[in-house]
From TrEMBL:
It holds the Pfam family DUF6612. Gene3D superfamilies: 2.50.20.20. This is Lipoprotein.
Length: 246
């Protein structure tokens, strides 16, 4: 995988933008449809709670279909925004017809520098401007801000009782997400998007989010699905760059 692609997958927020091997099964269980909760209140409380998030772990699973090329990304990572440190492992597979290529990349980010290890080689590069306000939780906050929100039900995710929210994002936040996807080059038009966020009833932190989106890129249609889970909020894990990286 091209080193620029890997680094920007990390920092666009998928995620990030982005679960790798060992991704936990966070499928919702124990769903209740009668919810006595105001969507506006849940939205406001969630934005307040997420504004105070400084450290967390994440797992993500991204699938992209460009017709003749299918790409699968499995991501797992740790973010410490206070220390401006981040770690991510990316397992990527690209398939075209009966041909398939896979690569595993580890990336450490410290301040304004990213250390990328792929195919046995370390590379160093600057992080994009605004990287520390565009981590995976920041992207979910951007989707929720100024969105139309509906409380669908309550359900349990990884043992945590959550509100399942249907989120219709502000078009500007969706366009920003699409344009910042490093794996996409060319003129981008968002055709459709569906976002569901699962917010803890007690802490109002986002536990899980799913995204289904259809884009047109230079006349080609791209289907993208994302599932991302968050855990260990507030745990400031020590993220140390290996000696071999420098």
């Amino acid at each position: 995988m091209h080193r620029r692609t890997v680094a920007l997958v990390l920092l666009a927020g998928l995620v990030a933008l982005s679960g790798c091997a060992g991704l936990t099964d966070s499928s919702p269980t124990t769903t209740a449809s009668n919810v006595n909760a105001s969507a506006d209140d849940v939205q406001a409380d969630t934005l307040d709670a997420m504004a105070n998030v400084t450290a967390y772990e994440f797992d993500a699973d991204i699938d992209q279909d460009l017709g003749n090329i299918q790409t699968t990304l499995r991501l797992t990572g740790v973010v410490n925004k206070t220390a401006e440190r981040m770690y991510q492992r990316t397992d990527a597979t690209a398939t075209r017809g009966d041909q398939s290529n896979s690569a595993t990349t580890e990336t450490y980010v410290v301040g304004d520098t990213a250390y990328v290890h792929s195919q046995g080689v370390w590379q160093t590069q600057p992080t994009p401007e605004g990287a520390w306000t565009s981590t995976p939780t920041d992207r979910q906050v951007a989707f929720l801000t100024d969105a139309e929100v509906t409380v669908l039900n309550t359900t349990t995710v990884d043992g945590v009782e959550t509100y399942a929210l249907s989120v219709q994002p502000d078009p500007e936040s969706v366009t920003s997400y699409a344009e910042n996807r490093n794996s996409i080059d060319g003129d981008v038009s968002v055709e459709s998007v569906s976002v569901t966020q699962y917010v803890a009833v007690d802490t109002h932190r986002i536990q899980k989010a799913t995204l289904d989106m259809t884009l047109t890129i230079d006349g080609q249609t791209l289907e993208q699905t994302l599932t991302i889970t968050f855990s260990d909020y507030g745990t400031e894990t020590d993220i140390t760059v290996p000696d071999d990286a420098s």
